[in-house]
From TrEMBL:
UniProt-listed InterPro entries: Aminotransferase_I/II_large (IPR004839), NHTrfase_class1_PyrdxlP-BS (IPR004838), PyrdxlP-dep_Trfase (IPR015424), PyrdxlP-dep_Trfase_major (IPR015421), PyrdxlP-dep_Trfase_small (IPR015422), TyrNic_aminoTrfase (IPR005958)
Keywords (A to Z) from UniProt: Pyridoxal phosphate
Record flagged with keyword Transcription: no
Residues annotated with N6-(pyridoxal phosphate)lysine modification: K263
Protein name as catalogued: nicotianamine aminotransferase
Amino acid sequence: MEDGTSDGAAATTGVAAWNFAPNEALLGLTGLSVRGVLGKVKAGMVVEDDGRPVVPLGHGDPSEFPCFRTAPEAVDAVAAALRSGEHNSYSTSVGLEPARRSISQYLSRDLPYELSADDVYLTSGCAQAIEIVCSVLARHGANNILLPRPGYLFYEARAVFNGMEARYFDLVPDRGWEVDLDSLQAIADGNTVAMVIVNPGNPCGNVYTYEHLAKVADTARKLGIFVVADEVYAHLTFGEKKFVPMGVFGSVVPVLTLGSISKRWVVPGWRLGWIVTNDPNGVLHRTKVVDSIKSYLDISADPPTFVQGAIPQLIENTKQEFFDQTVEILRQTADICWEKLKGISCITCPSKPEGSMFVMVKLDLSCLQDIKDDMDFCCRLAKEELVVVLPGCAVGYKNWLRITFAIAPSSLEDGLDRLKSFCVRHSKPNM
Ligand SMILES: Cc1ncc(COP(=O)(O)O)c(C=O)c1O
């Protein structure tokens, strides 16, 4: 500044003090993002030409592996939408009607009632669906949302950024990561607006039964809150339990279902997701939640029009064989993971994953001689073995790890062998 109190650059150029400053709230939020934490884990990793590839067990995007390549029918649908020349314009703010209709029919296959195109709002991946729901609900400082722990911290990041309090209920490891309904009820109050469940689960690999979801619905109904059902991993199940959509309970309690094509079609880069109102009693309309979603969409960017244009063909033409093959590879890699982890003494895995792409494992730090915590473990594992794993702190569970098994089977075996060597090398003597 001209009075000499500012930095040298401003003084020498004769510019007054800068008026701008960043939104400070954002600077603390990277700790709540998988990308932010993985960035720190990978920071010390030096990839040398020694022939050892990096093994990515940290994030849920297997699209780089040929065995997880998307269905040719999906590629054809997008190519045809592009070639048609009919999808070069802006979309409507809620999304193109044929795409919404086709998603409503696709989701209705598993419901006891029919959704209509008007129940579906298109978003830029499931991530934008989360962003919208958290923005729509937040009344600055006046309300709270109930989130699972361990969980997908993007919900907390978006809630907190909008000035809404995030409160955590527990998932119980010994009961297949079911919701602890007592802990849920204990944290709710008159300012609680909604609860989130992720099924199939990230980070736990859980799949909930019809009976458990029915109890969740009854509890939410009793509390007067609605359920946000994150079903981005819908149908990626490979254990005994079949996927049951939360929307089945839409007449007990209103449900906002969030989803996308990112995981089932293995195309996270195509950025096409949805918010769906599963609410045959029209509660979300009467309480104007639906109007707020529409208003939000009016002031935000849309998913690419040509991907929207491809949706009817993509859904109609993708063969069951493709879905079966993806699930079969996940079954195989979940088995590999389960068996190999049993052979690592400082790691315990409470339950075999039955869905999604992840498993949560507990680190026994007392067996390790020079590792401080989960973050330290992951940073050193990345540096020494070029294996990237997500520390539990990134999912709200200190001193656990989240391991992704959705990679090529041979790479997974290699990565888990290196994880074992690391643990052996750092074990206390006689362990
Ligand atoms: C539980 C959960 N919800 C939402 C998302 C975001 O999905 P999308 O890639 O469709 O934005 C992810 C991505 O990994 C996720 O794991």
